[in-house]
């Protein structure tokens, strides 16, 4: 069962925003995001997307088998490489 974890940070100061976890269990793919408690308390904080209000999570997203981007929330899928970018990464 592949699982990937990413620390989500913002800006040059790498301000912690949260933790993103992607899991694939057989044909099922899903991701979970949790805001960092310090981000929630930060007066300059904002919600990453409307379906992830600025509060303790976790927030879950699932998708169709075969495309990891479908299992990521929009804010993360938009930042992920497209199919051409993934092919380039796989070749290096």
Write the layout of secondary structure elements.
Layout: E1 3-10, E2 15-25, E3 28-35, H1 37-41, E4 59-63, H2 74-79, H3 83-91
Antiparallel strand pairs: 1-2, 2-3, 3-4
Structure explained in plain terms:
The protein is of the alpha+beta class and 92 residues long. Helices cover 22% and strands 35% of the residues. The protein is built from 3 helices and 4 strands, in the order E-E-E-H-E-H-H. It has helices at 37-41, 74-79, 83-91; strands at 3-10, 15-25, 28-35, 59-63. A 4-stranded antiparallel sheet has the order 1-2-3-4. A hairpin with a 4-residue loop joins strand 1 and strand 2 (15-25). The longest helix is centred in the last third of the chain and has 9 residues, at 83-91. It starts with a strand and ends with a helix. The relative contact order is 0.17. The mean pLDDT is 80.
H and E string = EEEHEHH
Oligomeric state of the chains in view: single chain
Q: What is the strand arrangement across the widest sheet?
A: 1-2-3-4
Largest sheet: 4 strands, antiparallel
Strand content: 25-35%
């Amino acid at each position: 069962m592949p699982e990937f974890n990413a620390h989500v940070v913002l800006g040059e100061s790498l301000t912690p925003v949260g933790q993103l976890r992607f899991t694939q269990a057989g044909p099922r793919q899903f991701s979970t995001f949790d805001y960092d408690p310090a981000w929630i308390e930060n007066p300059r904080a904002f919600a990453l997307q409307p379906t992830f209000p600025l509060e303790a999570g976790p927030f879950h997203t699932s998708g169709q088998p075969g495309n990891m981007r479908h299992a990521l929330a929009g804010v993360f899928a938009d930042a992920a490489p497209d199919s051409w970018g993934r092919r380039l990464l796989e070749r290096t």
